[in-house]
Amino acid sequence: MYCALSVLSLIGTSMEYPVLLGYSLLASQATAPRESNYVLVPTAEPDRVRDVLATVYGIIGVVRKRRTVRMVDCTRVHLDEVEGLGTFVELEVVLGDGEPAESGVVEARRLMAALGIQEDQLVSRAYIDLLQSR
Fold first, then answer.
1. Same domain, 52 and 10
2. Are residues 91 and 73 both part of a single domain?
3. pLDDT: is 133 or 42 the higher one?
4. Domain range spanning residue 127?
């Protein structure tokens, strides 16, 4: 069974270049590498965008995190320190136009092995869901 998860996030209200992030991912196997698609929209008025989104959709929660991003070949390695949850690593393999999703899965698994990340350590839920279930 496949289900799509769509998310809207306002990233970096204190950043120099805040963006609205909208993404969806195909969650056929929640704890396995999977394809996601996203759109980044820069905004010069993050507070107003947040207020509009809150008015239209409501706010289900707030995730506070410190993220460090490093590139390893074609992969963005996200090191997240999430307030109330701890430390996480996210691997985001960036595929070229026409490159099959399977090559991204192979690369993600290669980096997982190099970093010592085991399948049973993978987390299938969003930070907000983890925070709300505590």
1. yes
2. yes
3. 133
4. 64-134
